[in-house]
Write a structure and sequence with these properties.
The chain is α+β, with helices and mostly antiparallel strands. It contains four helices and three strands, in the order H-E-E-E-H-H-H.
Length: 125
């Protein structure tokens, strides 16, 4: 039969697991809601991406068609997607840091591998 101290330890363990589960649930919600927005220097192109670098919106100033050639517009859009993806990757890394503070990525996955290796890359989703 378990002693009172063993029951208290078990209850404490269950509370800790419940707290960690709730913390993970809140973190998942925050991760799902993450986004970043990048705007070109001239203000003509604004892009918003989600947590995996997926493009959510592209806003173009109506004057963009008179100011930029099609290839310049394309390059500007791609650049803003890259900037926004880097921003959201940084936010995701910051959010995840408490969960994986000292994980030896290079030991597990090879030289040059860090937490950033698992984040979205600019221009990919």
């Amino acid at each position: 039969m378990a002693s009172d101290e063993q029951w208290r330890l078990l209850e404490q363990l269950v509370q800790e697991v419940d707290q960690q589960t709730e913390q993970l649930r809140r973190m998942q919600e925050r991760m799902r809601d993450l986004s970043a927005t990048a705007t070109s220097k001239d203000g003509m192109v604004t892009v918003t991406v989600g947590p995996r670098g997926e493009v959510r919106t592209i806003d173009l100033d109506p004057r963009v068609y008179r100011k930029l050639s099609p290839s310049e517009l394309s390059d500007t859009i791609v650049a803003q997607i890259g900037d926004a993806t880097r921003q959201v990757s940084g936010e995701l890394k910051e959010l995840m840091a408490p969960l994986v503070p000292d994980l030896p990525f290079e030991d597990l996955f090879g030289d040059g591998t860090g937490f950033e290796s698992f984040l979205p890359r600019p221009g990919t989703s």
